[in-house]
Amino acid sequence: MAESKVAKRYARSLLGLATELKQKDVAFTDMNLLAATIEESHDLEMLLASPVVRPDLKQSIMDKVFVGQLSELTTKFIKLIIDKGRESQLKYIASNYIAQYKKGKGINMATVRTASKLLPDAFAKIEALVKEQTGGEIELKEVVDPELIGGFVLRIGDQQLDTSILSELNDLRGEFDKNLYEKDF
Prior knowledge:
Shape: globular
Helix content: 55-70%
Structural class: alpha+beta
């Protein structure tokens, strides 16, 4: 199931409650652990998404997986999510919390997709360029995507700069698909 408005709303609610209880940083650490654990464990993600597994069993498994690692606030929040039948959204709720927390701290998120791993000095140049453009603190994530063939795709928030060879080839393919001898209607 893709990320949803529900995930954003639950994340916003958790952020509001954590702010009120002065536990934003603790919840941030917990959400990082939760997101990373679900991302690393396909079995856990499938368990949370399964309609066949009873909610009390899911809660029991989550308690055992995260025993002593999560704050009381986060543990109760996870229980609430499972009680509401939204456990399949936990990964997205956690990532939304992280994004909203960072936005509140003035940290801009950016992703650079490349065909192969960037050299450290090239990564530093892109990071400096993004910092200059956004005028604030930046967290740049690198993703290697061999399908790009060459070039890069830089995404900052909802803006994207695509200089990849794959994009150029797709544009060229579109030009070839046009029939210059037929009249457009």
